[in-house]
Amino acid sequence: MKSNLLTYKGYHGSVEPSLREKHLKGRVLFIHEDVCYQSQTLDGIRKAFENAIDDYLARCLATNKVPERPFRGQFNVRVTPDLHKSAALRAEQERTSLNSIVVNALRAYLSEATVNPQTPSASFT
């Protein structure tokens, strides 16, 4: 799967142009801490991203803080009460859990994406 995301040491970062400042900028995704970076070039944005990750990890080490890790395997899903009820009743009938239903739905969704990929995009990874 191609994407416009940078990847380094298990972290992912965005890349977007800043038209006003005339450079590329990005931020580390999927963590709460605000870790940003910028560069004038595509090669430079990758290096700036990697430096931002290294700096973030060094700051955490220096302050005895546990670095945030993206994708702990847990997330909240918000649905309508009717959908929640229907899913819970069906899970009960099938003697399974809501968690299993969501996991199976995500697997089916991701399998469908590999069978029917969208238009390829540029990749920086």
From TrEMBL:
Signal peptide location in the record? Answer: none
Q: GO:BP terms for this protein?
A: regulation of DNA-templated transcription
Domain of life of the source: Bacteria
Task: List the InterPro entries hit by this protein, alphabetically.
Answer: Arc_rbn_hlx_hlx (IPR013321), Ribbon_hlx_hlx (IPR010985), Uncharacterised_HicB (IPR008651)
Q: Which is a Pfam family this sequence falls into?
A: HicB
Q: What is this protein called?
A: Toxin-antitoxin system HicB family antitoxin
What species was this sequence derived from? Orrella marina
Lineage per the UniProt record? Bacteria, Pseudomonadati, Pseudomonadota, Betaproteobacteria, Burkholderiales
